[in-house]
Amino acid sequence: MTVEAKICGINSPEAMRAAVDGGAAFVGLVFYPPSPRSLTPERAAELAALAPAPVLKVGLVVDMDDAGIERILAAVPLDLLQLHGSETPERVRAIRARTGVATMKAIKVATEDDVAAAERYVGVADRLLFDAKAPPEMTGALPGGNALMFDWQLLGGRRWPCPWMLSGGLDATNVAEAVRISGAAAVDVSSGVETRPGVKDPARIRAFLETVHRL
User: Fold this and answer.
1) How many domains does the chain have?
2) CATH number of the domain encompassing residue 117
3) Which member of 38, 78, 137, 177 has the lowest number of beta carbons within 10 Å of its beta carbon?
């Protein structure tokens, strides 16, 4: 099985080049100011220019209003909007209709009920992404990129009529096992290729991509 990889939270030319040269299918740019990986549209445009087609450029937003999304799209040629907040199916549908850009809805998972909630977005979002839900007691938790895992067996054997991606606490040491258990055909990494929050390590990016390409 061919497994695709997304390197998310890219915020330097070195990280972008490592992702592109290493064969990432997707590169993620974060537009969420509380995140240490957040970018301005102008900076994101500079980095996106380093990612030629067919690498898909993904913009991560969290419960952003229409004006904010439009500012980003005016500057950055995104192929996919990753909606990583509490966006309802109606909001996802509206964003897709307004922008014409494909959407990927993040589903935050701790239990089987969380996985089942993905059904609400089938036929609405173009893709799904399953990420770990931060526990209520976690201080300073972000919507994503918290280096947390969830039980991959919750996804094992499940099928959706749209592409989906696995995220949450992945790195070069565990991604093979995560794919084996979950059956994911695409994986997403951010903190797992960093030396500290917001600082991407090109060597770790290359190692992650090499491991994925061997699957």
Assistant:
1) 1
2) 3.20.20.70
3) 137
Of the candidates 66, 126, 131, 188, the residue annotated as catalytic is 131
Structure tokens at 17: 């080049």
Question: Could you tell me which of 190, 128, 125 has the C-alpha nearest to residue 158?
Answer: 128
Six-digit token pair at 209? 């991509």
Convert 52-86 to b/e letters by CB count within 10 Å (16 or more is b). eeebbbbbbbbebeeeebeebbebbebbbbbbbbe
Catalytic residue flag (residue 65): no
- The C-alpha torsion from 203 through 209 and 213 to 215, rounded to 10°, is 100
| pLDDT tens profile 116-167 | 999 999 999 999 999 998 766 666 666 766 678 999 999 998 999 999 999 9
CA distance 176 to 170: 9
Task: Give the whole-angstrom CA distance, residue 126 versus residue 93.
Answer: 10
* Domain span including residue 80: 4-213
- Quick check: is 131 catalytic? yes
Rounded to 5 degrees, φ, ψ at 171 are: -155, -175
